[in-house]
Amino acid sequence: MKNITNICCIGAGYVGGPTMSVIAQKNPHIKVTCVDLNEARINAWNDDNLDNLPIYEPGLAEVVKEARGRNLFFSTEVDEAIDKADMIFISVNTPTKTYGEGKGKAADLKYIELCARQIARVAKDDKIIVEKSTLPVKTAEALKSILHNTGNGVSYQILSNPEFLAEGTAIQDLQNADRVLIGGDDTEEGREAMQQLVNIYASWLPQERILTTNVWSSELSKLVANAFLAQRVSSINAISELCEVTGADVSEVSRSIGMDSRIGSKFLKASVGFGGSCFQKDILNLVYIASSLGLQEVADYWEQVILMNDYQKHRFARKIVKTLYNTVADKKIAFLGWAFKKDTNDTRESAAIYVAEKLLQEQANISIYDPKVKKEQIITDLENLGTLDPEAIHKRITVVSNPYEAMKEAHAVAILTEWDEFAAYDWQKVYDNMMKPAFIFDGRGILDLKNLTKIGFQLFSLGKSN
Ligand code: NAD
Ligand code: UGA
Predict the structure, then answer these.
(1) From CA 177, how far away is CA 175, in angstroms rounded?
(2) With a cut of 0.95, is the ipTM above it?
(3) Is 115 an active-site residue?
(4) Is the Cβ atom of 166 under 6 angstroms away from ligand 2?
């Protein structure tokens, strides 16, 4: 069996960048080249100042520092990297389709297909192709068809190796993965290709955590894993509203049910709604697959997870308006947090965007502080909604780099992301400088309810009867 000595990864984003960095760190004998069409992104990956890497992830800069220039390279020379590689990971984006059949639900596979056609055009020797992007079940069949029908007569093995890292903990998740999943064909060549990929991961993970399955199980398991995780968040969020009206406390309910080892304690934190680039996209994809196969009850079941999430975001925004005497027009609302979760600068599908949309429609002025998200990103997120007047966005949104400034003279503070630093602020100082009554809406359940109430705040915390 040939040893893999040269890996290429197409797509240097949130998955490609960190994953290839760790593979290179743990396999110094393998040359790993991560390529992307986006020149600015590649330049940022190559920046001497590690603070300028295109992605913020705890621990990432250290890994890049160790491997970059040794056996880890970032480049825009896609053809050259494909040509030299024994194994090619495809880690490009697979967003929800915004046009045509399946619009708003199905995964848009145009970037994947472009990669396949490019590989077929360039490759002059046998390659192992690894699906790292999250894909609808059966995509490997389409890849195979393109590669075999448009290629130079070389042979391909297609593996599915979905990524389970979560943002904010990507490096930890990669270095200490619960499991790595590899799907391949049950043929001699398929088993050999799987073993070659197993060997790469086995350089740092115990063999028993590396699962091999058939390709379809692997592709489908990724969508199902995300659907199950998101379903837990929607389930506890549904219970949060029930807690508010019954006097139960959602964090106590979470703890009580989570201690049952059959339920488990993770992913039971009530919130203003899950965000991120994948949960919604992957569930919609699952819903689309089920309904196009005629499994309408299955589709409806999973769609409810999304509907509940939308409801939670809107409910939080409505609560703010209602509590502020049914009008937020021209009032200053401070947002703490814009990222979809702590420890990342990623804002894709962040609940903050949708809460802001509602409040802007009510003509509120919003002052935003997030430790890692820049103003341009926030404005782009709001403009991309397509539902708001760009002039109103510029007029009513302020982004500041000091949280106390964001909250100064505000009518209300809303916690949208669970950054640790928020709980440690001098809340007495915040209170003294706010309009009265001083309202706080904790969408993440991170503040000390008793202490803040003692200071004088009027506090609403999701899942608690305030
Ligand atoms: P991303 O948008 O951050 O990165 C994708 C990159 O691919 C972009 O930089 C883009 O320029 C590049 N690209 C697109 N087409 C290209 C081409 N033809 N040639 C070269 N480069 C090309 O996306 P991401 O968050 O890294 O996600 C990638 C895939 O991984 C998606 O399928 C996603 O569902 C999946 N995934 C994401 C996460 C996550 O935490 N973000 C976790 C697990 C799985
Ligand atoms: C998620 C999965 O956890 C990863 O395994 C998967 O690889 C990834 O999606 C993907 O395919 O993209 P990620 O979206 O980065 O990772 O982050 P999560 O920690 O899963 O959080 C997702 C959202 O759910 C965040 O908005 C978070 O705040 C929210 N959440 C999470 C809650 O509201 N409550 C919880 O208890 C947990």
Answers:
(1) 6
(2) yes
(3) no
(4) yes
